# Entry
Amino acid sequence: MQPAQQVLHDIVLSRSGDHIGWVEKTLAALRAGAPERELHVFLGLAPRRLGKADLNASHEERLAADAARPGWSLEDWSVDGAARVLALLVFQGARPFAETFKDLRRTADAAELIALYRGLPLYPEPETLHFEVGEGLRSNLKPVFEAIAHRNPFPRDHFDEHRWNHMILKALFVDSRLAPIVGLDERANPELARILREYAHERWSAGRKVSPELWRCVGPFAVDDPALADLERALKEGGAAARAAALALSASPHPAARELLRQRPEAEDIASGRLDWQSLEAA
# Structure
């Protein structure tokens, strides 16, 4: 298995075209302790010299990435973004990594922020980056928030329960999908289920729709009658909401949930595997 930095190195060089010499020379200098100014110059020139095209990682490259860091996905990465992350990884600066990252974040435009945050699962000393990650989560720019929340194992691996729950709730607030969040099922918890049910009630009271994905985090903790009543209400909405509520019922440990599901037309599709959260997302 290749280390994550080597995986990214091979990918970036394979897409550097006529600028491969410049990339190799700069990376070698950064690795040898070049001044931080050279890192900033590389980060600024990367889009112009390497382009902003999608990385379009191959199947083999995606497997290598996931093997190096479980949950690390190259989907939606750009060539210049990958080069920026690689440069930051190899840079051997005199200052702690978190200080360098903080300065880069403060001066970054949106595209740079997205690249910086997508690299989170690869950086050293992750415990020193929580403040900077919090700044990204508070961003008003949805793509910046999603660079942390989507296809990124950093939240799964390093967020405490409070921050994890806040991220899920914010995703719903900004109309961002939950399915691309790494660890969505394994980090679900009773407090999150309670928060999401309260959120659903607020939406219903305001006459607004509730995201069907919300019920995915509620189902395993629907252990009392009020929670089942919420799922019954979602069932009555029909469509995707009903299918999601049925899936949530299938995950509930409450005996009454099984009886409720047995009476639903979705039960057979769930039992046969024709209906799951992936197929619901794709519909």
Q: What stands out?
A: The mean pLDDT is 95.
